[in-house]
Amino acid sequence: MSDKRKFPFGTREWRKSPDEWDNTIIAVSPYTLKDLVMIPGDESRQPQPESIEEQNFKIRLAHSQERVNNASMLIQRMYMKRGYDVPGMLKVPDRITLMASQNEAVVGTLTLGIDSGTPLMADENYKKEVDELRDEGCKICELTKFAVDQVRGSKRVLAGLFHIAYIYGRILHNQTDVLIEVTPRHALFYKRMLGFEPFGEERLNTRVNTMGVLLRLKIDYVDQQIAHWGGTTDSEAARIERSLYPYFFSKEDEEGIVQRLLRGE
Predict the structure, then answer these.
(1) pLDDT at 258 over 90
(2) How far apart are CA 102 and CA 56, in angstroms?
(3) What is the largest CA-CA distance in the chain?
(4) What is the C-alpha to C-alpha distance for residues 10 and 17, in angstroms, rounded to an integer?
(5) What is the DSSP string of 192-248?
(6) CB neighbour list of residue 201: distance below 8 Å, 6 or more residues apart
(7) 146-155 pLDDT per residue, tens
(8) In which band, very low, low, confident or very high, does the pLDDT at 18 lie, cut at 50, 70 and 90?
(9) Which CATH number fits domain 3-263: 3.30.830.10, 3.90.1150.10, 3.40.630.30, 1.10.150.240?
(10) Segment (H or E) for 36
């Protein structure tokens, strides 16, 4: 027996089999999407129009071991292409792994860690800096294990992953600051596209055996950008805006997602 569920994007009804939408946070249909390919760290690449199929995606929680393994395989495949040695993912308390998929193929993943008992991964290489924020009374979360398929990844997929992570971190857990460790060559992407700022000097990232740098983003800034830009991809002003924020969901859609998560749907 199929059922119907209303998603935050208007009143369109979706039919689903019993397992198809289990733990799906959001499903984006292609009828309003006009975005272009964007790869983290490669914003100079010539944009290419996406097909309708590539514009359709879902974001889910990687709640099962099978989904964690699928996310882990994407990370290892993408990082190994750049010569990074990345261990497999494990389910850890206080960490939420998100997956973006198209036609059941994993095309993106991102893990949000909450500073609530389990040490943050940033503590391994930047404990002094992280402790400074704790001493100031900041509530810290971090983004790790981020990878997007270079062929299918779009601005909308990237923004969707980051926005859902924001909802979990800011709205559901009341975090004030987010940290991320990246390679120096990728730091410009996070500064330009999301507003991160340097927060630690370059040093060896012992987890992947390459140089890294710690970046910080005040979530108050994200609040402002979503309120101003969210859901405006078709506007004239958004066409010259270089950040990802026009590709974030609108505040109306955000509220719909939050309410569904709170209801446990």
Answers:
(1) yes
(2) 6
(3) 57
(4) 21
(5) HHH--EE-S--EEETTTTEEEEEEEEEHHHHHHHHHHHTT-TTSTGGGT--SSGGGS
(6) 213
(7) 877 765 558 8
(8) very low
(9) 3.40.630.30
(10) none
Question: Hey, what amino acid is at 205?
Answer: N
Indicate the residue type of 90: L
- Please name every residue paired with 192 in a beta bridge, in sequence order, or none if there are none: none
| CA pair distance 121, 86, nearest whole angstrom | 14
Compute the average pLDDT of residues 25-35: 57
Q: How far is CA 97 from CA 60, 126, 206, 228, 247, in A?
A: 9, 22, 22, 27, 21
**Beta-bridge partner residues of 211:** 204
Domain residue spans of the chain? 3-263
pLDDT single digits (tens) 56-88: 888 988 766 666 666 566 655 655 556 555 655
- In the structure encoding, which two tokens stand for residue 52, read together? 């309708």
The structure tokens listed for 78 are: 């993408």
